[in-house]
From TrEMBL:
Record organism: Campylobacter vicugnae
Protein name listed in UniProt: Thioredoxin
Residues of the site described as Contributes to redox potential value: 30-31
Domain Thioredoxin: 1-104
UniProtKB keywords: Disulfide bond, Electron transport, Oxidoreductase, Redox-active center, Transport
Amino acid sequence: MGKYIDLTAENFNIAKEGVALVDFWAPWCGPCRMLAPVIDELAEEFDGKAKICKVNTDEVQDLAVEYGVRSIPTLLFFKDGEIKETLIGAQSKAAIADKINSLL
């Protein structure tokens, strides 16, 4: 069963291997809370194919600054360490899945 990966500065390199979605979010953010169940579903669907990750910007502000995240939720799509796509704001599951599939 797939589960998303909580990323911190210490383990962020996980997202730089293969294909990864990184969701920058915060607990107080309404659109982020709306997106949370979608992220959970994607983690299960893409288990073994792509890493589905989350960064709590309240706890790991340095990563948000490093990647230029000014609005949340921000979704960064990595392939082999490079950011290939960015989505800002709540998105449909289909839109996110399409971006992940395009990188596989």
